[in-house]
Write a structure and sequence with these properties.
Length: 335
């Protein structure tokens, strides 16, 4: 699938496939001989020995695509990003692309740049110069995804909705008047829904420094490498894992759609248990209306485990909309 030129139309049948501009996603490029060393010392996942992916090719698999977190010294996630290694040519220096929430891209690029010092690497937030697109396809017997020749593209994990498996891909391309940069509402709604239902979290400005990685299952979706060397917050992340002190986890949930629920369905909104109206028991990580069930809003929520044992959990306030907890699509990592 390629991006469409302006004034063309892209047929979409029952939202089984589509592409959309992701204006809430940004892009950071980290380039130079020391790029891998810089990121290895800063991120929660290893970037060493990653497979190079050429322009127009699609990074796919754990050797070419990594999910990684960027933590504060206290072990709290400042950012999460999907990474690929995309040199400009076969003999060019390393260039890592970090697909990241746009509202934190500039601050994260600035923070990474603080650690460059004498290293031969440059860190640039190119979110205003590149567009990020999301592509999805359903129930393909063969892998039919493809990307424009001058783009950076990576496959994200598939998402199973009922009996339908959706392939997903992120594409970054320099802004151009020849490329349509309009988000189709139906396609964007489907993409956002798939992201929420994947149960793979994404940090945004409203949730910065709210979670240790395990609190949102980041280790269980392969965003943490416990065998790599040190990085900011590494000791706290490791202690949380090996001493078994994780008392909060990411859950999938839904609530009936209403004006109030839609207003409260935002990252950073707190959750309350009916047994304690004064203290929040969790927080919204991501949310999206369900395009297949217009009466539902789906959520990723971080929540105290003991709050799940009995009683109702409310969105936004003690008498807010009731959240119903759903099953995760993956097992939690056991050490």
């Amino acid at each position: 699938m390629t991006l469409s030129p302006k004034n063309s139309t892209m047929p979409n049948t029952h939202q089984k496939d589509g592409f959309t501009l992701l204006s809430h996603w940004g892009l950071i490029l980290v380039e130079g001989p020391d790029a891998a060393t810089l990121l290895q010392n800063q991120l929660s996942n290893s970037v060493l020995s990653m497979k190079r992916t050429g322009l127009g090719q699609i990074a796919h698999g754990s050797d070419a695509v990594r999910l990684a977190g960027y933590c504060s010294p206290k072990g709290r996630l400042l950012a999460s990003a999907w990474l690929g290694l995309f040199p400009e040519s076969t003999d060019a220096e390393d260039r890592f692309a970090l697909f990241i929430s746009k509202d934190i891209a500039a601050s994260i690029a600035k923070r990474l740049s603080m650690y460059v010092l004498r290293s031969k690497v440059k860190v640039v937030d190119v979110s205003n110069d590149w567009d990020v697109f999301g592509v999805y396809e359903a129930d393909q017997e063969q892998d039919t995804l493809n990307a424009p020749n001058d783009s950076l593209a990576l496959r994200m994990p598939d998402v199973l909705i009922g009996d339908t498996s959706f392939q997903r891909m992120l594409i970054a391309q320099k802004k151009s008047e020849s490329i349509e940069s309009i988000a189709g509402q139906a396609e964007l709604a489907r993409w956002n829904s798939l992201e929420v239902l994947s149960a793979i979290p994404r940090i945004v400005l409203a949730t910065q420094e709210q979670f240790v990685p395990q609190m949102i299952n980041f280790e269980s979706v392969l965003g943490v490498d416990f065998k790599k060397g040190c990085y900011p917050g590494q000791e706290i992340v490791a202690r949380s894992q090996y001493r078994g002190v994780v008392k909060r986890r990411l859950q999938l949930a839904h609530t009936a759609s209403s004006i109030l629920a839609l207003d409260l369905a935002k990252p950073g909104v707190e959750l309350f248990h009916e047994g304690d109206a004064t203290q929040p028991c969790g927080m919204v990580v991501l949310s999206a209306p369900n395009p297949s069930n217009l009466d539902h809003i789906d959520f990723q929520v971080e929540c105290k485990l003991d709050a799940l044992e009995a009683g109702e959990i409310h969105l936004g306030k003690s008498d807010g909309p009731v959240l119903k907890i759903d099953s995760l699509p993956y097992p939690l990592l056991e050490i």
